[in-house]
Write a structure and sequence with these properties.
The protein is α/β, with parallel strands linked by helices. The chain is built from five helices and eight strands, in the order H-E-H-E-E-H-E-H-E-E-E-H-E.
Length: 163
């Protein structure tokens, strides 16, 4: 759990959602940015693979968000992700990401979105006991138990990294 007093509104939404789910977590806010997986790993002192990147794509009809929660060192194979979804996907621009999630790119957490996305979780993340993800802002991160990730996001663990 974390103290909500110093958190920005976006991080407070993540905090409230996690608290309601009753999971073990910790939110940290830092002076420096954690926009990239490398920055986040350096900030918290973990391997880059332990960072869970929340990447938003658009469904073929452009109406639904598709969230790929990828291990920090991995790149998403968009064709593999589309095959898992069963339809083509496209890149999402900053406005779409904000509308669908309620967060700016660089701070998108794996849960507590404005609109529920379709979620896929990189199988490589499951090798870690805990992961770190964005917590609503570019300078906040949340530590989560990896085993909780599928349940709290409604996501499916799958292989979709570029080889």
């Amino acid at each position: 759990m974390s103290e909500t007093g110093g958190l920005k509104a976006a991080s407070r939404r993540v905090d409230a959602a996690l608290s309601a789910l009753g999971v073990d977590y910790e939110i940290r806010t830092h002076d420096s940015s954690a926009r990239s997986a490398e920055e986040a790993a350096a900030t918290v002192g973990c391997p880059v693979g332990q960072i869970a990147k929340s990447l938003i794509f658009r469904s073929a009809d452009g109406e639904r968000a598709v969230l790929a929660i990828a291990s920090g060192g991995n790149r998403v194979d968009e064709k593999a992700l589309a095959k898992l979804l069963g339809e083509k996907i496209g890149r999402a621009d900053a406005d779409f990401v904000r509308r669908q999630t309620g967060y700016a790119i660089g701070g998108v957490p794996p849960l507590a979105h404005a609109q529920e996305p379709v979620v896929f979780i990189d199988r490589d993340l499951m090798a870690y006991e805990t992961i770190w993800a964005a917590a609503g802002t570019p300078n906040s991160v949340v530590r989560l138990q990896t085993a909780d990730l599928p349940r709290i996001t409604g996501g499916r663990v799958a292989d979709f990294k570029t080889l």
